[in-house]
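Mods, move this if it's the wrong board.
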Amino acid sequence: MRNIAAIAQRELNAYFSSPIGYVLIGFFALLFGWFFYVPLAFFEQQSMQSAMNPGQAMNINQMLVAPAFMNTTVIMLLVFPLITMRTYSEEKRSGTIELLLTSPLTDVEIILGKFIGAMGLYTAMLSITLIHMAILFIFGNPEWKPIATGYLGLLLMGGCFLSLGLFISSLTKNQIVAAMATFAVFLMLWVLNWISTFVGPTTQAVLAHLSITEHFDDFAKGIIDTKHVIYYLSFIAFGLFLTMKSVDSERWRG
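Not the wrong board. Structure tokens:
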């Protein structure tokens, strides 16, 4: 665990020793603020209409929090390739990958350290959004359980994207290529659920199961379903496994 923590700390230092970590957090906060403001404005409008029509039901979790969480998955498409593009590509470009691979550290320790470091940066991004939730609790009366499950879903989904991004970054020494390829794969996974509406029932069921956003719906509604948790954890494990095989092949190629 000490080696994994050391690699994770090294990754976090790399993010924050340059402007990239602060820029990514600021970019994420700016986009989340906008995606939070849009449903908030709609909710306020509906609240004013509800005041004149008391029969209309209003639910702040369903009308504001859940859409904000769903919109966060869009931000991931834009921001996460920028997080993972340097994890291995920069090591290859600068030549430090040889030093890392010939160190006493195992591949598993290196990969888990890099993954935890990226998750640390993502957790810092999500922590900024707690300010918006705190404002809701000050001026509104939302339920905390759907918010907690929503954040759990975001962390699990983010882990999937980051594990896959690590694998793609391990395939090239060019950060731009890594970022573009990662974005293309993320986008394909993101639209699987939409594509499933144009195919037959059997293919539709398969695509819906593979869709990374389909498994997030219940989390946004405050439901923790074991099958969704297993899907995300399996996805993360598979992404890290692919990364380990890619790094292992790099070691053998010298």
